[in-house]
Each structure stands twice: as structure tokens, then as C-alpha cells.
Write a structure and sequence with these properties.
heterodimer, A: about 325 residues, mainly alpha, 13 helices, globular, B: about 500 residues, Rossmann fold, 6-stranded mixed beta sheet, binds adenosine-5'-triphosphate, binds magnesium ion
Chain lengths: ~325, ~500
């Protein structure tokens, strides 16, 4: 029990359940219905995928502000690829590959030039947004999705999948894979070590540069995948899409127990954080709360989550 | 210089500069397998720089190294490690988010195809920990470890390296108490008998005389002497290190304190201390002896308002009331932390800024700040390029002087000093003792915590021993011996 209480995802999970119960009581006719739960799961996919990568980056001690722009650029690339005659798999793969390349550039700038990740990704956030707009001639790019749209389609349609849309399963599977990676593999533990104390890690022979690069490549690739999912939802390439997505992703990761100074974070927690944000958004609409209340609510939840986490951490030191 | 036939490590003409500072110039050194080689020198002499070059942290500007006859020029710590070099750096540090076991094997985790073998991690770490810190559990979280425990973890990390050929210990005992030091010495002797060469850096000459076979002395980055420890008197070593003879410390006239300025009655903290009562008088130096983990640091922290007091009463002069560092400083009580890296200093700030940090005027005038700093630099003999140099670039001992200098600048009436001479060389230690003496004779009160019992006996008027969080009554030093303190601290007296 004590172990459960100390798990970093325990608090966020409780919050997800509590908010669910709250909205279920406030809007009993609409909120708890299966269709709504499925919609929420689907809406969380994009933030979740990016949050898995962001968790790795933040545990390593960095941050990635270029996520939103990467997603937008990916939708454009996928649309252009489909338009140019590639098949759905090739288009999706090119989206993920593009994300990974963006991550590699971010990572190389951080390790090679010793620039702060905040600065590097602030730069790439702007540059990538520009690239997306240029590539799309500043307008939406229409393309036949050739079946890519089924990734995020709700089941019950033509090829229903396992109750949840394929995208949800992909996100869950990747979350499990990367959680195991973090906890049980050598490079995974090195990510924690670098974020915890970079100098010590270096003195102990941890390949700090390689670990840093790896983390940004993974985060970029996952942002690319999120972009593919976004295209699947929109079925157009939209260069102005996902503005501010990075902040939502960071909020989810932080609610999930990550620390901005590195060393701490949980993928399960980040998924709970992402789900919590969707719940608040959807629930507020169901209850009829205006947008501004929703935003204040989101901010308050983040602060409360942080305060609770801080309190719990202090308890650890004494116990 | 005595040549070794088949040296494990041979260094020729090593040079290293940092910007304008010459840290090493033309250093030669050779160490035989199975030898414990003491590397001596004052603060800033270049000892740590030498070890960092050998262990691949920096590259040398010039010169060559050979390890067992093969050229040795590691480009990274990982490469040096693969070559068989294990090192405990001077400023011990760990990754607080990893477990103790993970910290011990960090960088060399036993793994199969990238999968960490957790059972082997525990076993390997447990084995290494058993040598130096049997009471530390491999599964423990490392975020709450104190400096001594952190030091033990870094020692275990070096000892866990199985293919070790050369072990470098840079001031491994700076924050350890007597029993841990004994345990370490046992391990060092055993390793040496298996043919591992050991470089041992310490400012405690009595330690060096017990453990080392040969020595080399650095002075301002130059090698000024080397030889066998047997047959070299300590005074000669000091002479080599400082270039001058240091007269033996005479036993001071006993001082009698004035009025009570700080008193505690049955003080208890959340976990430590359990119960502490004492009276500190104007113009006296009160020492607190005890083992690592006995609650000495926690007592000072509680007094200074850093930790919560759960029972008992604490008075500064006649004032009771809640403690906070700000209030204590206003009352003229200052603390110098044992952990200068994490608590004692703002490493990125300059020497001047660090010295004046606790007492900045509303309108900071850099010129005044610098001139105040210059006075302290001179008074304390801090070796620095100037008041503007970041504290990070100073050698360990000089950083410690900056931490003490802040209390002088603040002109505290009550100085709480936690391990004030940690990492300080022989000469500077004498300087610090003189400063403490001077403070006491000016009517200030000083409370000193130290793991080094001879030091307490030399500088204190009275000493109280702490054992498992309980502070015994203070005894005048005239009635104490080192042996007595050792027994009391271990709780067998
Ligand atoms: N990273 C650095 N940047 C600039 N100067 C440095 C750096 N490291 C060391 N120095 C300088 O090199 C000289 C030697 O420092 P070093 O740390 O080797 O001394 P040391 O003999 O280990 O002293 P101590 O006993 O205090 O640990 C000092 O003058 C120090 O200020
Ligand atoms: Mg040193």
C-alpha cells in the first residue's frame, strides 16, 4: 500500500478518477456514456504520444518546445506524401522519420553546441512552424487519406478494431514499451542518471552526449507519430495546427510527476495527466462551462497537482 | 627521485593550465604496483588536477603517461575506467534519483543486451558496500544521504570496479569519522597487497604516515619532492609542502567564557538530535565530537532554524522564539555548512559575491564589495585570481575558506561551524585555527563540529560528545584525550 502511495502515477490516477466521478455526477446523462469515454480516449492520443517523449526528455533534464510545430509539419508532410502518390504506410513512416530527424537536430544542437534545450527548441519551434507554412503554401493541404484516417476512427465503423481506435492501442503499447525501457534497460537508467546529476554521470563513464541525443530523437519520432495521428483525425495537412500543443504536453508530463530540473518523471503519470486535461475540457463542455472557466480550471489543477506532489515528496524525506 | 623498476603508472613532464592559472608544470611521478602513494600539497597545489588528468576528465597540455608500460591518454572518464583506473573524486557526488545500488554500479551496470540485471546490480553493489559501509542498504534511496554516506557510496563505486589496476582516492576521509576511516584503511591495505597501486590524497599527515609507503609533494603545480614515508618526519613533509617550517601548536591558555549567548535545554528535532542541552558562553570555543550520523549536523541545523525543533527550548542570549535562518543572522548567529557544494556556496557567483552574500546593503556597490572581499582574501589567505573569479574555479580548500569568510564578513557573534577545516591543507588549517582563536578572544562564541578529534582538542575550550542523537555534558579539554573522545563517541566509555 505504501509502495502504491509512493508511485509517481498514483496521485494523477486518483485525480483522473476523482474528476471523472465529479463530471459523471454533474452531467450524468452525457459524460459517463461509453461513446463519450471513447471520444476522450481518442482525443488524448496525440498529447499522450508526445507526452511519452517529453517525459524522457524531462527526466533527462531537458525540455522540448518544438512538439506542436513538429506535429503541424508532420501533417503537412504526410498530406504531401499521400498527394504525391505514396501509400499510407510510406506516408506515415515518412512522418515519423521526419519527427526523428527534427529530434536529432535538436539533440545535436544541445550536445554539440552546449546550448540550453529551452533555447534550442524555442528556435526550432519557430523554424519548423515556418517550414510547415512554406511547404503548405500557407494553406491547408488536402489529400486522400487512403485509409490512414482509420487509425483514429471510432470502432463500429467499417473495420472496427478492438473496441478502441487503433491509435489508442498504439499509444498504450508505446507507453508500456518506453516505461519498461526507462526502468529496466541500461540506456534507460542512464537517462535518469544524466537528469539526476549530469556531472556525476559523466565522471562515471555514462555516455552523456549519446544519451541526450537519443532522448531527443525518441521525442521527435513520437511527436512525428503524434502528427500522423493528427493527420488521421483532420485528414488534411494543416500548417497552423497544434499551436501551443507543447504547453499542454508539458502540463501533462508535469502533472504526471516530472520535475523541470530532471531526474524525475513517470510515463504512466504523464498519460494520466493527459487524460486529466481531456476530461476537464470535455467535462466542462458537457456541464456547459464557458471556455474561460475551463482554462482557469486547468491552471488550478496543474498548481494543485504540483503542490500535492511537493508535499508527498517531502513526506518521503522524513519517512 | 627514487625510480621504480616496473611502474604501474608513470607520468613524465605533465603540464596543465586553466586560462592564466598554471595548475601543473612538468610533473613527474611513478607508482609501483601494490604501493600506496601519498600525493601531498597545499590547497591549490594541483593534486586534484593531476588525478583528473589520469582519470580522463581533462586532457593534459603536455607530457605523457604510461600505465603498465602502455601509453595512457584517456579521452574520457569511461576510457580511463576501461584502462583499469578507479577514482574517488574530491567532491563526492551521486545521482539522488537513483538507488544506492544503482549509484554504486553507475556507468558499469551489469547488463545483458542492454537489460540491466537487477539481481547482479544488488549483489555487486552489496559486496562493495559491505567493505566500507555495511550499514548502508543497497535498496535505500540516495536522496536523503548525508555527505559522509555519499562519500561512502562513491568509495564503494570505486571498489566495485573489478578490473581495477590503479585506485585514486582524492581526500576520501574528509567527511568520515574514525571508524569509517579504519575500515577504509583496511580495504586499502588489502587492495595494495593484491598488487593494486593506490594514489592517496589527504591533508591529514597522521593518516598519510599510517597508510602510505611513498609520497610526492606538489607545490604550486611543481613537484618539489618525493621519497619513502618511513624515515621522513612529518615536519619535513610540511616544510616541503609550504616551503616553510610550521612551529608546533602550543597548548593555549585556558579561557573562561563570559555570559551565556546560546543555550539549549533538552532540544530535539524530527529525527535527530534526540536530546541536547548545552550552554555556549561569550569568548569560548565549544566543540561537539561524535560519529558520522550521530546528529551533530542536525543539531546545528536546528539551532540555525533550518530544521524543525520538536521539543525543548533554545535561547539566543535571553530570547526564545521561533528560529529561521534570517532571524538567526539578524541575531548575529551564523552557520557554515559542512556541505559547501550544495549548501555552503553559490558556486557560479564570484568570490566577492559569496563573501558578502549574507549581508548585502540595499544598494550594492561593486567596488565596495570587491574591496571588502579583498581584505578577507588577504586575511584568510584565499588563493584566487581575484574577487571576481567564480568560486567554482577555486580549489576545494580555498572554497572552504570563502565559506568561512562569509561569517567574518557578517561579523557574527555566534559562529556555528560544521567541519570548518574539511579539505583544508595543513597551513590553512593552522590559519583557520588562528581565526577561531581570534574570534574567541574578541569575545565571540564559537560552536565547532568536527570528526577530527585532535583538531577539537587543539582549538576548543570544552568538548561535548554526541552519541546517537544525545549530547553529553561538556568537559574542559584539559581533562580529555583523543582516546577518551573516541570511546565516548562510540558509546563504549
Ligand atoms: N576547472 C578549473 N578552472 C580554472 N582553474 C582551475 C580549475 N580547476 C582547478 N583550477 C586551478 O588549478 C589549481 C590547482 O587546483 P587543484 O584543484 O588541482 O588543487 P588541489 O591540490 O587539489 O587543492 P585542494 O587541496 O584544495 O583540493 C588551483 O589554482 C585552481 O584554482
Ligand atoms: Mg583537490
Amino acid at each position: 500500500m505504501k509502495k502504491l502511495w509512493r508511485a509517481p502515477w498514483f496521485g494523477p490516477l486518483c485525480a483522473v478518477l476523482a474528476v471523472y466521478v465529479l463530471f459523471a455526477l454533474l452531467a450524468p446523462d452525457t459524460f459517463p456514456r461509453t461513446a463519450n469515454v471513447l471520444t476522450m480516449a481518442r482525443q488524448t492520443v496525440i498529447v499522450s504520444l508526445a507526452a511519452i517523449g517529453m517525459t524522457l526528455v524531462m527526466i533527462q533534464g531537458g525540455i522540448d518546445l518544438s512538439v506542436g510545430s513538429t506535429v503541424a509539419l508532420t501533417t503537412v508532410i504526410v498530406a504531401r506524401a499521400l498527394d504525391g502518390g505514396s501509400g499510407p504506410w510510406a506516408a506515415a513512416a515518412s512522418g515519423v522519420a521526419l519527427g526523428a530527424c527534427v529530434g536529432a537536430i535538436n539533440g545535436l544542437l544541445v550536445t554539440g553546441l552546449c546550448l540550453l534545450p529551452f533555447i534550442v527548441t524555442l528556435g526550432s519551434m519557430s523554424a519548423l512552424r515556418g517550414a510547415a507554412k512554406g511547404l503548405a503554401n500557407e494553406q491547408k493541404v488536402d489529400a486522400d487519406p487512403k485509409g490512414l484516417d482509420s487509425l483514429m476512427a471510432l470502432p463500429g465503423g467499417a473495420q472496427g478494431g478492438f473496441l478502441l481506435p487503433t491509435g489508442v492501442w498504439v499509444a498504450l503499447a508505446l507507453a508500456v514499451v518506453f516505461a519498461i525501457f526507462l526502468a529496466y534497460t541500461r540506456p534507460g537508467r542512464h537517462v535518469v542518471a544524466v537528469g539526476s546529476n549530469l556531472e556525476t554521470a559523466r565522471l562515471c563513464g555514462v555516455p552523456v552526449g549519446r544519451i541526450t541525443l537519443m532522448v531527443y530523437v525518441i521525442a521527435g519520432g513520437l511527436a512525428g507519430l503524434a502528427g500522423v495521428m493528427e493527420f488521421s483525425t483532420l485528414t488534411v495537412g494543416d500548417p497552423t495546427d497544434s499551436i501551443g500543443l507543447e504547453l499542454e504536453v508539458i502540463a501533462a508530463v508535469v502533472i504526471g510527476g516530472a520535475s523541470l530540473s530532471g531526474g524525475r518523471g513517470s510515463i504512466a503519470g504523464a498519460l494520466c495527466g493527459a487524460l486529466l486535461l481531456t476530461e476537464i475540457k470535455t467535462g466542462s463542455t458537457h456541464v456547459g462551462l464557458p471556455n474561460w472557466v475551463q482554462e482557469i480550471l486547468t491552471g488550478a489543477i496543474i498548481l494543485v497537482a504540483m503542490a500535492l506532489d511537493q508535499w508527498r515528496e517531502r513526506g518521503k524525506g522524513a519517512g | 627521485m627514487a625510480e621504480v623498476a616496473d611502474p604501474r603508472l608513470e607520468i613524465r613532464g605533465l603540464e596543465k593550465s586553466f586560462g592564466g592559472t598554471r595548475a601543473l608544470s612538468a610533473v613527474d611521478l611513478s607508482i609501483a604496483p601494490g604501493e600506496v602513494h601519498a600525493l601531498l600539497g597545499e590547497n591549490g597545489a594541483g593534486k586534484s588536477t593531476l588525478t583528473r588528468i589520469v582519470s580522463g576528465v581533462f586532457a593534459a597540455d603536455a607530457g605523457s603517461m604510461r600505465l603498465d608500460g602502455k601509453p595512457h591518454a584517456p579521452r574520457s572518464p569511461a576510457e580511463a575506467r576501461r584502462a583499469g583506473i578507479a577514482i574517488v573524486h574530491q567532491e563526492p557526488a551521486i545521482c539522488p534519483h537513483l538507488s544506492v545500488a544503482e549509484n554504486v554500479v553507475l556507468g558499469a551496470e551489469p547488463a545483458r543486451f542492454g537489460w540491466v540485471d537487477r539481481a547482479r546490480v544488488r549483489a555487486e553493489a552489496g559486496r562493495a558496500l559491505a567493505l566500507v559501509a555495511p550499514e548502508l542498504s543497497p535498496d535505500a534511496a540516495s536522496s536523503s544521504l548525508g555527505p559522509a554516506e555519499v562519500q561512502l557510496v562513491t568509495l564503494a563505486r570505486a571498489l566495485a570496479q573489478t578490473d581495477c589496476r590503479l585506485l585514486i582516492l582524492d581526500e576520501p576521509t574528509a567527511s568520515l569519522a574514525a571508524p569509517e576511516v579504519e575500515r577504509l584503511f583496511e580495504v586499502v591495505r588489502r587492495l595494495a597487497s593484491t598488487g593494486i597501486a593506490i594514489v592517496y590524497i589527504s591533508h591529514f599527515l597522521e593518516e598519510v604516515e599510517r597508510i602510505a609507503d611513498r609520497f610526492s609533494v606538489l607545490c604550486d603545480g611543481r613537484q618539489v619532492g618525493s621519497g619513502a614515508i618511513a624515515g621522513t618526519p612529518a615536519t619535513r613533509l610540511v616544510e616541503l609542502m609550504t616551503g616553510q617550517t610550521l612551529e608546533a601548536r602550543r597548548r593555549r591558555e585556558p579561557r573562561t567564557g563570559g555570559e551565556v549567548v546560546l543555550s539549549a535545554r533538552d532540544l530535539a528535532g524530527t529525527r535527530l538530535p534526540v536530546s541536547a542541552s548545552f550552554e555556549l558562553r561569550k569568548g569560548e570555543v565549544l566543540g561537539i565530537a561524535g560519529l558520522v550520523g550521530s546528529g551533530r549536523t542536525e543539531l546545528l541545523r536546528a539551532i540555525f532554524g533550518l530544521d524543525r525543533v520538536t521539543r525543548g527550548e533554545l535561547r539566543v542570549r535571553a530570547e526564545l522564539g521561533p528560529a529561521s535562518p534570517g532571524r538567526r543572522l539578524a541575531q548575529g548567529v551564523g552557520l557554515s555548512s559542512e556541505d559547501r557544494k550544495r549548501e555552503g556556496l553559490a558556486e557560479a557567483l564570484s568570490v566577492a559575491e559569496n563573501l558578502t552574500l549574507s549581508k548585502l546593503p540595499a544598494w550594492v556597490r561593486p567596488a565596495r564589495q570587491a574591496s571588502a572581499a579583498r581584505r578577507l582574501i588577504e586575511r584568510l589567505g584565499i588563493k584566487t585570481a581575484g574577487p571576481d573569479q567564480p568560486v567554482r574555479a577555486l580549489s576545494g580548500g580555498n572554497q572552504q575558506k570563502v565559506a568561512l569568510g562569509r561569517l567574518l564578513h557578517h561579523e557574527v557573534d555566534v559562529a556555528l561551524l560544521d567541519e570548518p577545516t574539511r579539505g583544508i591543507d595543513v597551513k590553512s588549517r593552522a590559519d583557520v585555527y588562528a581565526i577561531i582563536d581570534e574570534l574567541a578572544s574578541q569575545g565571540k562564541a564559537v560552536l565547532v563540529v568536527s570528526s577530527h578529534f585532535p583538531e577539537l582538542l587543539a582549538i576548543c575550550d570544552r568538548i561535548a560528545v554526541m552519541h546517537r542523537g544525545r549530547l553529553a555534558a561538556a568537559t574542559p579539554v584539559a581533562e580529555l584525550t583523543e582516546h577518551r573522545l573516541m570511546l565516548d563517541a562510540a558509546g563504549v566509555g
